[in-house]
Amino acid sequence: MIVEVVGGTHEVPEVKVVDVDDLTRLHLALGEVTDEEADQALREAGLGRLQDDQVGFVTVDALRAAAEPQSSAPDWAQRWEGMVATARDKGWIGDDGASLQVHVESAAGA
């Protein structure tokens, strides 16, 4: 699963959740946006925040709410729970206990 922050209409960054059926990976992909723009877009979308250019946090409940309706996999809910449990086991959990730490990939080097 990928949380994308990309340039949107009139250059206002847009947040999208894509590849929702691939629960073997989770990362944040930044398009042609600055770190500040990405952080603001994530916060405004209620999906998380950017810590720095390498690490972000996504809110578990908000991400599930955005991703699950797009899923076509009948066992998605079980695989989602497994992904979240694995992240927790590996310590990839935010201090708030409600978010997962994710790697940031820049597609544009903005």
What does this structure look like?
By secondary structure, the chain is of the alpha/beta class. The chain has one domain. Helix content is 30%, strand content 27%. It is built from 3 helices and 6 strands. The chain has helices at residues 35-45, 60-67, 76-89, and strands spanning 2-6, 14-18, 27-30, 48-50, 55-59, 99-106. The longest helix is centred in the C-terminal third of the chain and has 14 residues, at 76-89. It is globular, with a radius of gyration of 13 Å. The two termini are 22 Å apart. The model has no long low-confidence stretch (mean pLDDT 92).
Task: Give a brief outline of the structure.
It is built from three helices and six strands, in the order βββαββααβ. By secondary structure, the chain is of the alpha/beta class. The protein has one domain.
